[in-house]
Design goal:
The protein is built from three helices and four strands. By secondary structure, it is α+β, with helices and mostly antiparallel strands. It has a single domain, classed as Alpha-Beta Plaits (2-Layer Sandwich), CATH 3.30.70.
């Protein structure tokens, strides 16, 4: 399954987020795949596309960052996959 993960840096604190990321990496479980991310430096938000077997698979990763980030997780699917399941 694909998920759009929207992260908000608590208190806009990119310094602590960056320090942890450089030190420890993403710290994702083995069954979670990172695809891509985008940052808005004005609002200190990050959008990431992740792939995981279930929504719950993301929880160990989220727990490692929850002190610095707020998370919203939205299940998504590629447009081509969505439209392929719809009748013509």
């Amino acid at each position: 399954m694909l998920f759009m993960v929207i992260e908000r840096f608590k208190d806009g604190d990119e310094k602590r987020v960056g320090e942890r990321f450089r030190k420890d990496g993403r710290m994702m479980p083995a069954d979670v795949v990172y695809h891509a991310s985008w940052l808005d430096p004005r609002t200190m938000r990050c959008w990431q596309v992740m792939e995981a077997p279930t929504r719950a698979s993301l929880d160990p990763w989220i727990e490692k960052w929850r002190d610095l980030m707020e998370f919203e997780v939205v299940p998504v699917e590629a447009s081509a996959d969505f439209w392929a399941k719809r009748p013509a």
